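[Meeting: bench + compute handoff]

Bench side (C.D.) handed over the final construct sequence. Compute side (W.E.) agreed to return the predicted structure before the next meeting so the bench team could plan truncations. Sequence as handed over:
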Amino acid sequence: MPQGITDLYTQCLIRLRDAPIEQSRNGRVRTLQQPLLVTVERPWERLLLCPQRKANHYFHLMETIWMFAGLRQVGWLAEFNSGISNYAEPNGDINGAYGYRWRNHFFRDQIHGVVKELERDPDSRQAVIAMYDPRFDHQHRLKDRPCNTHIYFRRVREKLEMTVCNRSNDLVWGMAGANAVHMTMLHQLIAEALAFPMGRYHVMTNNLHIYEPHWPLMEKLVGPDHYKGSSAPATKILSKNVDLGEFLYECEQFMKYTDEGTYQSRFLNDIVVPMYQHYTCRLNGDLDTYDINETRDSDWRLFETSWREWNGKSD
């Protein structure tokens, strides 16, 4: 059973080595021939720090805040990953944007809805977030449809567990990449809003695959897990003076003002804003002016140090 996302990534790479080769709309893939259910024991160990993979966690973090803001316009997000624009419609909207589905698409805020349901009944089996909508997503002309279709929340042994259902999951970019960050942060956010400890993270995927350009990664397994020996959970998203509603509102404000604003949220001030500034300095070739220690969180600061090593100081 994987302990954190690094374990998940490594174990799935091994399983995919001998998987049959299939054709997809994006080229050849190795694909498991049956659905897969995996359980991550320590989902707060969410950052894959692998020099072969070089995961862009700047993009993953900023995408998460973009999701919490409930947006679907690609413009701001493309600053961190230009390839994301390939999934936008001509009007600039990403049809399957998870955050928009969480907060706006179904004419209700599902994040608040799940919290209210579990406040009403902590043992409810009706705490569900939907992302797939047949009214929209069965149109073949669309460039993007939600790969993750539903999320279920459940209290088990006094901890909040989360199960994500996925119709089709790329291991490198999806399951152990972007999904690992934004889904576990949603898990953490809702757990904190309920004052529940964060429990296990379950992922059921109907189609786990790895694209041909990433096949060499199957021969380059991850080295030591940077989280080994650490028992501390991730830095809190909510704080005493910032509740769920205020945090989501400030995520919306961050989309407008980025690093120009001062926020009540310590997570935004201490993690997100410094990460945004570091990324901007890197793009401008001005990395020496940025102090990595300004990112006041061991996980994210460790990533920034690793990113500098992988890409060079002036990259």
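W.E. noted at the follow-up: The first helix runs from residue 5 to 16. C.D. will use this when planning the next construct.
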